[in-house]
């Protein structure tokens, strides 16, 4: 049966009022986006995956009678669904428009998003097995982990899995995590959403610890108390969310340069005193270089030294080996202690 494509109205929790591509007709709409590979958003109603690999619940696809989704209120059952669906739309569009990649597998087929995972579950994750993004509801079940950057981070894990395949431990694991933070930040800026403007912070909207702080800081990763600003021998032995630091820092420095800077009203500081000075290449160039390095040159065991070579090759391809961009890519690596 033919189902018309509708433009629904989503009142999101984190990103204001957004347009959602939905399916159906008056009285019976579904949160299914036939314009983006059939991406659907489902409600797990607090179910969890069987840790022994048995049941992996798909959840129930969200439905609505008037195509106006949620009120945006924290705790409204549809709120997490609206934000997750919006984040998936944006991330799909970003990869398609900026990197000419159509979906995680570049085959036009969407993954899907599950929300309301577990009870006060304070995490979100990508899982190859279900080919899906999954979001917990956070503290009080009212802080779902569904902001633009978190959604784009999780979907990007799917892209990494289907390109370089960076193994999720050691230095390659840190690069895997950084890839998700870097491209999530690129999505957040690209979205140009006035309620969730671009920044070099990860998770600044979800208040995961109820202290108003983001999860990660790309201008100075060590501000979170555990991530590393620069590479050192042995960084592969720490958790991948901390060994991502030097690459996140590289992205900030390559994009914005060293020294104090304000972007979208937020102040950043990556002083030259503790690193070599870096001139900026701009965020769009840095993201294009990272994506090309990821999808063309990195492999499952790429380490920091390899990431430097991969991004330099990508910069040479895109901008030329004698371009200022190429030189500044190398300088940004030197600033985080990754050298030739
Ligand atoms: N939220 C985490 C992440 O995507 C989940 C994990 O540790 N795999 O990195
Ligand atoms: Zn991650
Ligand atoms: Ca952010």
In terms of topology, how is this protein built?
Elements: E1 5-11, E2 17-25, E3 28-30, E4 32-33, E5 39-43, E6 60-61, E7 63-64, E8 68-69, H1 79-99, E9 112-117, E10 124-127, E11 132-136, H2 148-161, H3 170-191, E12 201-202, E13 216-217, H4 240-243, H5 245-256, E14 259-263, E15 266-270, H6 283-297, H7 304-319, H8 324-335
Helix pairs in contact: 1-2, 2-3, 3-5, 3-6, 5-6, 5-8, 6-7, 7-8
Domain Peptidase M4 C-terminal: 164-338
Protein name: M4 family metallopeptidase
Family: Belongs to the peptidase M4 family.
Helix content: 25-40%
Poorly predicted ranges: none
Give average pLDDT, whole number. Answer: 96
| Number of beta-strand segments | 15
Write the CATH architecture name of the largest domain.
Answer: Orthogonal Bundle
- Indicate the proportion of strand residues: 15-25%
Shape: globular
